[in-house]
Each structure stands twice: as C-alpha cells, then as structure tokens.
Design goal:
Number of helices of chain A: 20
Strand order of the largest sheet of chain A: 2-4
Radius of gyration of chain B: 35 Å
Largest sheet of chain B: 22 strands, antiparallel, barrel
Distance between the termini of chain A: 86 Å
Distance between the termini of chain B: 17 Å
Shape of chain B: elongated
Shape of chain A: globular
Strand content of chain B: 35-45%
Structural class of chain B: mainly beta
Strand content of chain A: 5-15%
Oligomer: heterodimer
Mean pLDDT of chain B: 80
Number of strands of chain B: 55
Helix content of chain A: 40-55%
Largest interface: A-B, 82 and 70 residues
Chain lengths: 489, 1137
Amino acid sequence: MKYILNLTWIAIFLLLTGCGKSFLELNNPAALTYDKFYKTEADFQAALDGCYFRLKNQAPYILTFNESTTDNTFVHIESSTYQQYQFNILAISSSSQFIQNFWQDSYQAIAYANLVISRIGGSEVPEATQKVFISEAKFLRALVYFNMVRVYGGVPLYAEEVTDLDAVYATKRASVDEVYDFIISDLSDAVNIDNDRTEQQRASAKNKATSAAVKALLGKVYLYRHDYEKALPLLTDVAETSGYGLTSLENLYNPDAESDNEVIFSINYERVDGQSCTFAYNFLPKYSRGILPNITSNDNGDGIYNLEDNTVNRFDRNDKRFTLLIDSLQTLSGGELKKFYYTKKYLDLGSVPAGGGYNSASDYIILRFADVLLMCADAKNQLGDTPGAYPYINRVRERAGLENLSPNLSEEQMNDAIAAERQKEFICEGDRWFDLNFRGFSYLQNMLNAFFPSSHRPSANVKDHMVLFPIPADQINLKPGVLEQNNGY
Amino acid sequence: MATISFAQTVRLTIDADKPNLKEAIMEIKKQTEFDFLYNKEIELLYNKANTTRKVEDGTIEEVLNQLFKGTDIHYQIINKTITLTASPSSKSEAKGNQQQHIVIRGKVSDESGTPIAGANIVVKGRANGVVSDSNGSYSVTIPGDEAVLVYSYIGYVAREITVGKQREINVVLAEDTQLLDEVVAVGYGTASKKKLTTAVASLKAEKLQELPITNIGDAFAGQMAGITAENGTGAPGAAPVIRIRGYGSINAGSEPLYVIDGVMATSSQFATLNPKSIESIDVLKDAAAGAIYGSRAGNGVIVVTTKKGKYGDAIFSANATLGIQQLEKKVDVLNTSEWLTLVKEAYSNEGLALPSFYDQPLSSYANTNWQDEIYRNSTYQNYQVSASGGSEKVKYYIDGNVLDNEGIMITTSSKTYSSNGSFDLTLKPRLKMGLSYSASHKKERKNESIGGAGHQTGGYGIAGGIIQQSLWMPPIMPVYEANGDYGQTWQKEFMPYLNFGFANPVANLNETHDDYSWNQALAHGYLAYEPIDGLTLNAGISVIADAFRREYYVSPYLAGGGGSIDANFSNPAYDKMVAGQQNGMTSSWTSELYANYKKEFDEHSIDLTGGYSAQYFGIKNTAARSSANDRGSANAINPIPPFNNYYQPSINGAALVLGSDSYNENTFESVFARLTYSFKDRYIFMGSIRRDGSSKFAPDNRYGNFPALSLAWRMSEEDFIQKISWINDLKLRASYGVSGNDQFGNYAWQGQVTYNNLYTYGLIDAGAAGTGKALVPSSVENRNLKWETNAQTNVGVDISLLNSRINLTADYFVRKTKDMLLYRSLPTENGIASSIFDNIGNMTNKGLELALNTVNVSTKDFTWSTNFSFTKIKNTVDEVFTSSGYIPYNANDFLTSSGFESAIRIVEGEPMFQIYSYKVIGTFETEQQLAELANPAGNSEIGDPIIEDYNKDGVINADDMQRIGNALPDFTYGITSTLRYKNFDLGFIIDGSQGASKIMTATRNASLLRNQENTLKIFYEDRYRQGETGHSMPIPKVNVTGMRHWNESYYVQDASFLRIRNITLGYTLPKELCSKMSVSDLRVTFGIQNVHTFTSYPLYNPQSNTHNGSSGVAQFGVDDGTYPLARIYSLGLNLNF
C-alpha cells in the first residue's frame, strides 16, 4: 500500500514535469517570429511601414551619389577615409562603405516588400486591401530597383521571399534590361492602386504609393529607358489630370506647411527623436556649430554638403531658388574670412525643442510636380517637339520668378536648358548625377570634367568606367564567380 | 542521537521465564518509556522459541538481544519506539524450512583502535545490512555459518569475513591509502575508480582543505592533467576560465558543464562555491565519460559533490584565513628622468622646437608611478564554520562562509556570504530523501573601465581603460594639482602632441561608482526508493534562482569622461552625471527521474542506469540609464544636489535615455541509459546513450543522439601479472563517444520580426494620416541549424607500482568537432541578415595527458609525495567556411575597432587563434635601405621600423601580415608536492605553460612616444638612436601619424611561463595537546599564493585574457590590460572539535 502511495507520488512528479511537445517550443518575448507575424491587416500594415521606413536609409546614399560626385557640392573634410569625400573626388572604391551599405539597404527594402508580397496571399487580410498592399510593396520594390540599376547597373533580382539561402549564393546579376523590365512590370501592376482603395484609404494615402506616384515613377523609368513615347502620356497624365500642381517655394520646404499639393511622393519626417531627418545637419555649412540658431555645441554642426561657389553663381540673382533657398555663412578659416554657401531646403527653423537640440522635420521629396513638368519637357524635346517643351519648363521658371526661356532653342540647346533648370530646381535633392548620366555619359563627363579644375576639388576627374559605380567587393568575395564586378573596378 | 543516548542510558532488568512476548513487552514498558510495534507473526515466532531469558541491569539493547536470541526477530529502535520485524528467511522458516539463524556481534574499529561508527555490515549477497553504532558495536543476524560478512566504511578498505564458528567478530578496518579504490561521481551515480573505463580526474576535499586558495579555480591549476584553469583576470571575485582538453569550439562556447550535487549549474555558481564546502570534484574528460550528459558534455563535465554529513556525533569545524595581498608584478615603464630623455630625443628627431617647459631642473617635475597610485596592499579574509553528523535516520552537513576580498586596485572589492547544507533522511529502510542547498550573497565594487577599450561605466570610459592608462600616463603628470583637483587638464599646454584620450586613472576609479550584487540560490531535493534489492528509483528536482543588480553612477567630478575631462572638484559638471541600474533574474529548474539496477551473479556484475530529464533555463534582464547630459531637462537626473561627494545612483523620476531588456530562455528534454558490465572484475564494458532535445534548434533538428562505448581490461587481475609483485594495478582503457554542443544564442534558428520605429504618414500636427509601427524582419530563419558534435576517442592506461608508491595515468585522445557552430556570412542580397549562425566547420584536437603521482618517501616521521601533470594538445581547424581564407576572430570588442582587426585568425589547416601581424625586421638605418625596401606608408624615415614585405609585392599593406605565433600553448604542466615531517607539512604548487603568444594590445599606444605617452622600459632600452645600429625598436617620435601600423610584431610576445602558484607551510597540533584542549584536530598554516612567475612576458600576467565587453567571455590571445594577479600572504587556522 505504501509502495503504491510512493509510486503515486512518482507518477504525479512525472505528470508535472512530463513535458509535451510544446516544452521545447520557445519564443523570445522581445521579438516576433515570422509564423506569428504576417497574419492580420495590422501586421501587414506594420510590415509595409517597415518598407517605407527603409526608404529613409536610401536617402543619404542617393544624396551622396548625386550631390558629392557632381558640380553641386563639395566636402570640406578632406580625408581619404571620409566616405563622402571619396565620392567628392570620385575615388569610388568597391570596398567603399557607402557602396556596401547602399547595396545592403536596398536589398533590405526589397526583402521586406517581398515578404509582404509572398505572404499576404494566405493571410486574413481582405482581398481588396491585399491588392492595395501588394501594389504599395511593388511600387517600393520598383523604386529601389530603379535606384540600384542607375547606381550599379544590372543586379540580382528577387521577386519573392528568399526561402533557400543557398540559392542566394548562386543568383547572378540580371542584365540592365531585365531589371528595367522587372521595374516596369511592377509599376504597371501597381498603377491602378487608387481604384482598389476605399474613399477613406484614398484620403489617408499621404506619403504612400498612389496612382499618381506610380505613374510619375513609371514615366521616369520610361524616360531613363529613352522610351519617350511611353513616358510622355504617363507624365502628361500626371501633369494635367492628377490634381497636383506647383506650390510656392516658401511652402514647399517648410515642414509646417506640408499640405501643399506639389509633393507626389516623399518620406515624412517629424520633430521627434528617431523620426527626424537624420541628414539635415549634413546640409549645414562648415563651422555652423553654435552659430546657426538651435545648433548647440552638442550637435554636429560641421556640414558635409557645401555648395560649390561657381554653381551658386549660375543662379540668376532674382531666382527665388537662390534668394529663398540659398544662404551663406562667413567663417574665419585659416586666418581668412571665407564664405560658405548652403541650402536651406532641410533647415527646419521651427525645430526648437526645450533644452536645445535639433530635429528637422523637413521631408525628403522623391517625386514632385516640378519634376514631372521638367520630365514632360524632356520627353517632348527628345521626341523632336522642342517647342512643346517650353510650356513645361516655363511653368517651373515662372514659379522661381524668372522670365520665360528664350525662344527658338535647338533640341540640343533645349536639352542643356532643361539640365541647367533641373540642377537649380533639384539641387541637394539627389538628382544631378542621375540626370546628367541620363543625358549620356559623355554629357556628364564633359560637363563635370570642365567644371572640376576650377572647383574646390581640382583633382576630381570623371573616368569612363564611372558610368556605373562598383559592386561591393565584400559581396563579390562571398559569391566568387557568380557576382561579377563592373568594368574598371 | 537523542534516541541512541536514551537507549544507552536506560537500564532495566528482565526475567522472562515464559515464552510470552506480550508479557515480556509489558515488563519492559513498566520499566521504561519504550513502545512496541509488532504483528501476530512476530508473537508466534517468539512464543515458539520457548527459552528462558534473563538480564539484570542491562541496556535495552542487551535486554532485546537476549530476548530475541535464537529467533528470527529483528528490532529497530526509533526514538522511543521499538519495531519488531521478522527477517525474510524467517518467513520461509515459518513455512517449515529448518535453516539455522545466528546473531553475530562485535565491534568495528580502525587501526588505532578508535571505534568506527556508521560502518556497514552486510551479509554478502543481501542488500540490507546493519550499521555500527557510536561505539563501533553491531549485531547482525546471519542465515548460517557459511555466511560471509562484508565490513565497509568510506575511506577504508572493505573486509570480508566468513563467519564459521565465530559468534563475536571484532574487525579492524585499514585506512584506504590506494587512490584506486576511490569512488568517483560519474553522473547519475558513482563508480569505483578501479572499474572506470573512461578518463576521469578527481580532486578530493583533503587537497582543497590544505590550500589557502582564494577561489575554486585555483584548486585546478596544475593539479589535473588535461584541465586548465586560467586566471585571465585577478579582479576580486572573478571566475577563472576552466577548459577541459582545450578549445573544442570556436564560437559556440567551450565552457564545460558544471554539475553541483546533481544540478546542472553555471560557471558563476561554481565559482561562488567556497572550496572548503566541497567534498570532491570529478572531471569527466572524455566523451564516453560525459556521454550520460549527452549534448551538455561536449566540453567535458565537472561534477562537484559538496560535503555531506556522516554517521556519528556532531563534528564542528572552523576555518579561518587572513591574508595581506599585493600586486604580484609591476610593469617596468619609464620614470620622469627617462621619459624626459625620450621626449627631448623625439623633438630633436623630428626637428621640432622643444617647449621651454622641458628646460627646468628635474626636481621641479612630478615623478608619478601610476601603478603605485592605483594598486595598494589590501586584506583578504575567509571564514568558514560547519557542523556535520548523523544518525541512522538523518545525516546533515551545514556551513556558513564569509569571504572578504579587498581588491589590490583602489576602490575595488568583493565580499561573499554563503551557506551550504545537505540533509539525507532515511524515511524507511528502502526509502530515502534528501535536500541540499547552496545560497550566497555577493557584493562587488567594480569599474568597467578596468577591462580595456570599449568598457565603460555609464558610457563614460577612458580610452584603453584604467590599466592601460596607468602604463601610458606620463610620469611627469601629478595625481593631484596644487588646488586639489585631479591632475589632468594642464597637460594640453605642455604636451601638444598628447592627443590620444588621456585621463587620470585615479580620478576614474574614485569617481565612478559601480556596485554589483548577486543573490544566488541552488537547491536540490531527491527521493530514492528501493523496491527490490539492487533496484533504486530516483526522483530529483532542483531549482536555481539568481538575482542580480547593478547600480552605477558617474560623479560630476569625472562626468564628461574620456580624454577631455572637463570636470573636476573645482568645476563639477552636474549636467553630465550619469546614473543607471540593471536587474537580472536567472531561473532554472531541472527534474529528473532515473533508475539504477545493480546485480552480481557468479563472476558477472551489471550496473544499469536509465532515466529522463527535463530542464528549463532562463535569464531575463532589464537595464535603465539616465543622464543629465541627455537632451532636455525632463531627462535629467532629478534632483542633482550641488555639493561634494554626493553619491546618487537613483534614477527615480528621471526620464530614461536607455531602457533595454533581454530574454534568454531555453529548455531541454532528455532520455538516457547506461550499462556497465564487468566479468571477473577484469573485463569491463560500458555503453551509454543519451537522446537530447533542445529548444535552440528548429523542430526537425531538435533531437540529437549521443552514444558512447568504452572498455577496460584490468590486466593486474590476470594471473601472469599477479605474479609480478611490484605491479599493484594495471588497467588499459579505450573509449569512443559522441557529445554535443549547443552553447549559442537561444533563438538562433528562428526568423524574427522586431519593432524598428514609428513611421508617420502625413503631419502629426496637422492630424497624421496614420502613425505606423514599423516592424521588420531582423533575422533569417535557419531550420537546418543542428547540434555541433564532438566525437572523442580515448585510450588510456592506469598503472600503480611498488605498493602503490608510483601511480601513473596516461591518456591519448583525438577529439573531432564536427558541424561547428559559427557565423556564416551571407550575401546581403537576402535582405535580412548579413550572417547566420550555421554549422560550418570541423576541427580536431589531439592530446596527450600524463598524471604521475609518486610517494617518494614514506616513513613514520617523514613523507614526501609529488604529483606531476602534463598536457599537450594539438589543435587543427580542418575545415571552415570563409570567403577570405580565414575568419577574423573578432569576438573581442577591441579587435574590431583599431589596427588589430584580423590579428587573430581562424585559418583552415592551421591551429585556431593564429596571431598575425606585421613582422618588424629592424629599423631603417641607411638611406639605401629607405630606397630599396618597401616602406609602410611610403614616407618612412631613418629610424622607422622596417616591415617585412611578406608577399614581396613592393608594397606594405594588410596582405603582408604574417603568422607570428599562436594563442594556444604547445603544452602545459603542473607540479604539486607535499612534504610532511612529524607535525609539519610543506606543500607547493607549480604550473606552467609553454609556447603560447599574446598580443599586448594594452601597450599599443605606449610604443615609444607615439604621442608623448609613457612606454615600456624594454622598448626604451632597445630604441633606435642616431648614429647607432642594431636596435630593433623604432626611433622615438612625438607626432607619429599613419606611419606606424598598430599591429607590429613587437606587440606579440611569448607568453610562456612557470608560476609558483602556492607555497603552504602547515603545523598540526599533536593529538595529546588537542585532547587537552578538547579539540580533535588543529592545524595552522602560513601560505603564499602567486609567489612568483618566471616569464619573459613584459606585462602583468601571461595568462591575461581580455574580456569581451558584451558577453563577458574571456578571449584568447589578447592582453588589453586586465586586472593583475595578487600575491597573497596568509595565515590560516583549521579547527575540528
């Protein structure tokens, strides 16, 4: 009897510790697993938020690739180990941190979008919303591939979630055409996104992919493919029927007046730690520490992007883009009083948190109406309708307080005029290198090589292989024989 | 014991002339308070015996013995109750069997005649026996004259006696001097060392008792072959790094499994144990030995048995150790005069104008030896009291300890209060229960900045850490300024090239408060039941509950930290104070059920163990920090009173600027079985298997099977060896086993999604269109992740010669690690992670271990014994996944952040931890050399170092780094020796290591005035001087930029050493004196710990291993300046009464 009692105790002990299959299932409370996430509409919204958030990382690289490399800005920290300076003097190495990081950041955004696209099918998300989310993800994916193809050329393509890691080691670079086809296919799928949205969703689509954003981007992609016939109808559609228009320059860059109707797609920043524009400081002039309002000694006041004097001189003195958006700071430098020009596009003077500090809420604009107008002008001009380009370019000049462009320009002159207008309009917005390259690499080469000798960096020189930037060396090392380097690197 | 004394004191007279049990009992009850329990069967048995029984003035035992003489009735006295039972054979007799039954009485004593209480007396072939009482007396019933009685007691040689005609047998047991008869813990049971088939090393309490050791790790040093205990840091309370048979893994841990009284515990729990509370430590070295612990035994198992109570009166014991400690070795750096010489030379070498500040007479400058300022002589105290004893029913041991270690570095300290206890209860003859516990409270004051670069309290550290700073700080700088401020700000004026982050180490130590406390508890309860003879069922549950708390605070006189300390007594920076707290909780439970069956028949013996185990282990941490320095007044520590020496670790009311938490949980589930079979005690076979499931793997790969086989042949039992008188024991062993390793992140296989940040659509002020919480994937799922396995083959021999005066154990092993868990770099195209934890390498360790134990002299007055151990391990990385030909071993923070990256490499085909560096082959002495030889930066000058152009491409770059050494030693050894003359004894411990190299990253900035810092004397003496040749160190310069690499070969130094770890002189008070003082033993000792280290290694400790800041794991091959060892002079007292 007693033994039976003892055995009962042992049995109870067994039951207490006898652990089922679930005993070995453990999860980190501080993290979700894939299986638990990607289920509800809220989950996928959060996943999309993550994709949009990822674009914030793209901005600084796009800016460096376009501003530092060209006649727009110079970097005053002249150190060979300083990333932006390497681009500034066009010493772009395959082991550059920026080259590596942009590659990684781009693929992160792509992977996040792919997870949404691959997993939303079997989820609880209503079908109509699924379509919207997939379109948003495809727009984001296309935007990232568009940036990549312009930086690296053809890159490995991933159309869905990576489930087999070994396959990644074997995936080769797609050709430039394949990448563009992929982008065009994604954007074509997403173009009717607004139709899939409810009234309410349309009203709250600020900073999200919209039909207008998809069309504007697709138009730009066709433009870069030099397929002007396809680009023009998309761009004119946005220009004429989308309801977007030009706003005043005072409002365009004022974070407190964001409800303007010029911005088609942008990344939103707020005056909150972690949500503010991280690169706003970089556009402050050298030695601005403690000089500009709100920039205290605790903050990084030594800017990176100082405007080239000769480029500033290209602005008409009445150009509002000069009078309103460019300023200068006089500083003693090497015993000499020097003038440093800088852009005020990201300078959020409204940011005055208690106790100092500076959180700029200036948004990073990716697509805006003026860009669409100037792309229309380009498409018309490239299709041989040079006179047809005038109304578009003149609308942009008019807003800047300038007179109309002189008439009877040749196609080539119009091309130069548009390029010049774009430089002034989009300076410090991450457009210049791409835009010049779009006009032909020799166009870029001639323009910049003529400029550099009298610039702040006489040693810079655009060489033939720079039509593309290098593929990151560390990634080539991981995929030897599979991932191939661009010529010249 | 009350029972015994009552039973012994009461006397009674009985005259039972009739065979009537009831009457007899009535009579006893009349005279005493005893009660009886019995049944009808007993009464019948008694009554039919029909004899007269008479006792006058006898003890109850004498009366009962007389009463039941010639019957099969057994009695048992528990408190005041006497239970009468019939022996099993009597039942058969009751059925008519006419077997005879005889009671044998006698006494058990040792050779000196002292009675042995608690000795076991068993009739051979039966499971249960009797135990001798406190007088050594026993009485046992035997079935007949042919019975054989087995007398045994722990620590004595068991004796077997055939009864024959004897009715009183007095037995003398001889003390067991042969180590071979030791019992060792082998996991879920014990085994006789004689019958072991595997490689197990043991250390017994006596050894631990003799040494005035400060922590348990010291007990290992040099004592056991194949086991290393490295004191990587001498910080008070620091745990040593213990490795069994080298490093079996690169990234997954190489930490052995600790089993304390059956509880799988952590190394920190092991390190907190007081050495004097430990009965024995058994180290299961080969895979076959540890295989019963399966996956957990990949790096060997350390089985600790704490002290247990023994049968007998209470024994009280007191131990006290009082010591004074000092820095073991000072590093030779320059004094002010030498430093000025160097500075003047450097200015002249570079053609710089010497500031007039340096023209004053020598006596006008300070001459600070910073090492004298941060180290001190301090005290070391350890007290322990214990009580133990036991009766037939209860055995107990309980102790209390206090260990107070004032560190040798100012402000540091460690204090531990702990208690251990164990209670073993015999509830019923076949049912046992027990509890053991270990509980401690430890308090330490530390300073993160001691540990080297990247280690900072509250984010305010100083470059390189305090120990480095004490070596670099110019001796010309005073500790305190005339106004009482810490010396630190004036330097900028007179040392224009002092641009590295210099800071006063005394200020950092004094003004950083960093207090840690740990409460640790470990408890184990078990129930053991023996339903039939030989079969034991065990159920055990153990719980570990640890709590950790850290409070830190950086005062306003240091705040700002780093090289540009702006704050001081005269200008406190209240707005830069930092305070923070951390809390952590470790909880773990293990439940185990296992059965053991032992059976002997004819010449066969089997021992079968099988069971089930489940374990949960979890650590949860929370950390919060606040700083007045952080933006916004709302975040400031509140309030901050503006007065001196205010200590304010509180973050109450402050808005947090750093809040973090972490979760680490894992679970295990296992089944296991082991069979030991021996034939004629000569041929022994052991086979075991364990199946382990771990939560750390994906469902498909969760379980691993870990089998082991081993064989032993005790040749000495064979006739042909038995004829050789000088061979006492000879055993050959061979084993093969597989174990596993899963020491890595808990959720590594899972693809996880984490919160990234808020993402706002539209404008918050204007009514956001939506604020999204961005959630992004943070890790890649790796369902293929599986166990790292360790397959180990071991052959060994145990020899005992010349009356066991010479004992040799030799083992050769091959340990193959397969599917090594390492980070595998992923193409970033996967978009989620740049690396995953994966099984991507194989490694081999081949080793030879020798342990030689000799009794050199053994006379009545003089004994001398020596223990020698030797270990040689050859490591080879057979295969590793890498794109660059090697894996940079960057687990160390420091190696990722400066010129030393890739200095330690894992290269396929080579031993792990290869040290690579730029080999300096001299200094540029001629213009011709400058023109002809490749020079590092293209602008080298006369006197600068020549770096060998290893790949001969005419350029010096990272490709020219070459192998300079290896962080692992060629071999290690240890010698311990004990001499005893009459009542004096003298022991010493020596340990050594040969062939390892170390990178002295701690002196990276002290390489001959790179920026006006102090430098090593050996560098100074061998510096290039103009007009001289043959010096190997470069020319001193004050403004070196870019020309010199960090990682030159002169930073890599041979770390071979021979260390006299310990010398102890003891005196034991003669017995006669002891008894006069009514104590049983008294021993006084004088000891010196860390007596001297013979080495050419220039820094403090050739075993120094820099700790990784984030994981706290010691890393091999890098000396970034760790807390030096202390030499301790101590007086000790051991007292038993």
